[in-house]
């Protein structure tokens, strides 16, 4: 049981490049979400999904796309990277909306130059 | 949406109980209180959650006041490995009954020898 797996762990992009951050979970969780964390700040929600084929925007969705074609995977796409997207990105999943805790991945540290 | 207020930092001696307070005076009747922690450079870790009653697990105890306007997370015998940022979160219901986590800045707990 691997939990929530994020790849890559580190990435450097040039401004304007695109890339996909991968997130996979093997716990059959319906709920998955992406957060970003900037220095000195708490986590901010980017996008979330309540099941395969269903996604919605969080607090800071601009510049990011998501899709949920399977229960296991929830990739986050940066369309045209900007220095403001330099951050640590965390993926999380949960069995249910309310009565369970979220399991977080170990994070992807992204630098945009 | 219910907001939470936590002290920015606290200190605790190793072996002593750490009592971390959280104020959530605008909490709704169906909102749960969750606690997470984040050890430096790692993903957040779920600790405990509750609705009305006090809760205890292998990591901590959660004491919720009768009016539910505040709560306290108790680490009964703090160790150096408990040094982390602790987040108190009230689950925010969104449309269609699904909910996500809203992280604030948390409390930085420093456990000293």
What does this structure look like?
The complex is a heterodimer of chains A (113) and B (113). Chain A has 113 residues and is mainly β. Chain A has strands at residues 4-7, 10-13, 19-25, 31-37, 43-51, 54-57, 64-66, 76-78, 87-94, 103-104, 108-112. Chain A is built from no helices and eleven strands. In chain A, the strands form two sheets. In chain A, strands 2, 4, 5, 6, 9, 10 and 11 form a seven-stranded mixed β-sheet that branches. Chain A has a four-stranded antiparallel β-sheet with strand order 1-3-8-7, with no helix packed on it. The mean pLDDT of chain A is 92. Chain B is mainly β and 113 residues long. Chain B has strands at residues 9-13, 18-23, 33-38, 45-50, 55-56, 61-64, 70-75, 84-90, 92-93, 99-100, 107-112.
Class derived from helix and strand content of chain B: mainly beta
Taking all Cα atoms into account, the compactness measure Rg of chain B is 14 Å
How many angstroms does the end-to-end distance of chain B come to? 39 Å
- Roughly what is the average pLDDT of chain A, rounded to an integer? 92
């Amino acid at each position: 049981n691997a939990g929530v797996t994020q790849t890559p762990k580190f990435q450097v992009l040039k401004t304007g490049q695109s890339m996909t951050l991968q997130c996979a979970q093997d716990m059959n969780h319906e709920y998955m979400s992406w957060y970003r964390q900037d220095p000195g700040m708490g986590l901010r929600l980017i996008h979330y999904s309540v099941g395969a084929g269903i996604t919605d925007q969080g607090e800071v969705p601009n510049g990011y796309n998501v899709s949920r074609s399977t229960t296991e995977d929830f990739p986050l796409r940066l369309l045209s990277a900007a220095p403001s997207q330099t951050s640590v990105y965390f993926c999380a999943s949960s069995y249910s909306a309310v009565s369970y805790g979220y399991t977080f991945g170990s994070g992807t540290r992204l630098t945009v130059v | 949406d219910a907001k939470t207020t936590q002290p920015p930092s606290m200190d605790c001696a190793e072996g002593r109980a750490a009592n971390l307070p959280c104020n959530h005076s605008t909490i709704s009747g169906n909102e749960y209180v969750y606690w997470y922690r984040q050890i430096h450079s790692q993903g957040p870790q779920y600790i405990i959650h509750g609705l009305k009653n006090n809760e205890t697990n292998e990591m901590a105890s959660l004491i919720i006041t009768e009016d539910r306007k505040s709560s306290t997370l108790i680490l009964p015998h703090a160790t150096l490995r408990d040094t982390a940022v602790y987040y108190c979160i009230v689950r925010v219901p969104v449309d269609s009954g699904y909910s996500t986590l809203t992280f604030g800045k948390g409390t930085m707990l420093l456990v000293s020898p």
